[in-house]
Amino acid sequence: MKNYVVFNEADFKKRVEICISLLEVDFGLCNMDKVKIDISNRMTRGFGYWMYKVRDREAYKTIKLQFSSRLLDGRFYIKNVDEIILHEVIHYLLFEKTRINHHHDKVFHKYCEKYGTNGNGEIDCKLTELGEKIKKQEQEKRSEKSNHIREPKYNIICEECGHTYTRTRKCKLVDHPNNFKCFCGGSLYVVKNN
Ligand SMILES: [Zn+2]
Ligand SMILES: [Zn+2]
User: Fold this and answer.
1) Inter-axis angle of helices 106-114 and 78-98, to 10 degrees?
2) Are 67 and 42 in contact (CB under 8 A)?
3) What distance in angstroms lies between residue 188's CA and the mean position of ligand 2's atoms?
4) Beta carbons within 10 angstroms of residue 125's beta carbon
5) What domain range includes position 182?
6) 66 and 36 in one domain?
7) Which ligand is in closest contact with the Cα of 123?
8) Is residue 163 included in any domain, yes or no?
9) pLDDT tens for the chain, residues 1 to 194
10) Are residues 51 and 112 in the same domain?
11) CA of 149 to the centre of ligand 2 (A)
12) I want to staple 112 with a disulfide (CB 3.0 to 4.6 A). Which of 62, 119, 127, 184 is the partner?
């Protein structure tokens, strides 16, 4: 048996829904068809996120559950992917049930323990064999990209502190440096790079 799964979006969403229904015993299915599940390509720091609206500094409404697209491509073991889903789903369901954002408190930890996930969100995602390949490809792409980053065309330098601002194209700052000041209050002048 493979220990990882490559999901399409629909299958991944189904997996989240399955996790939600697994928790039915404790939370009921009150909001199951209400929650929006979102897959994000841009989510490069975390893996999962229960997104809510805030009023008077407190969560009062769930907006959606968001997951990084990196959970879909098979780079992580399915066990860890499930742990991440469960962690976020428990945030969501616990809030819907109690109307309180429990963050990572004792109550939250209790449910995380029961359902076999980490209550601090510290899930150690090791790469699968496929994940190692994906990581290599990403690194190659990144280094290709960084070779293409253009040198800034203009340096805007502060007469006082020497701080240098850079611009890759013409703009107000480049055309009229006298209309601007450095953050230190100093005057600016422009040097064009060739
Ligand atoms: Zn959390
Ligand atoms: Zn300055």
Assistant:
1) 130
2) no
3) 8
4) 17
5) 154-192
6) yes
7) 1
8) yes
9) 679 999 999 999 999 999 998 998 898 866 556 789 999 998 877 899 999 999 988 899 999 999 999 999 999 999 999 999 999 999 999 999 999 999 999 999 999 999 999 999 888 889 999 999 999 999 999 888 777 777 788 999 999 888 999 998 899 999 999 999 999 999 999 998 87
10) yes
11) 26
12) 119
**Contact criterion met (CB below 8 Å) for 187 and 160:** yes
Tokens of residue 12, six digits: 């991944």
CA of 152 relative to ligand 1 center, distance in Å: 40
| Three-state DSSP string of 115-155 | CCCCCCCCCCCCECHHHHHHHHHHHHHHHHHHHHCCCCCEE
Ligand found nearest the CA of 48: 1
Q: How far is the CA of 183 from the centre of ligand 2 (A)?
A: 6
For residue 3, tell me if it sits in a domain.
no
**Tokens encoding 27:** 């939370």
Same domain, 52 and 129: yes
* Closest ligand to residue 186's CA: 2
Based on the domain organization, do 126 and 181 belong to the same domain? no
Compute, in angstroms, the gap from residue 143 CA to the centroid of ligand 2. Answer: 33
pTM equals 0.73
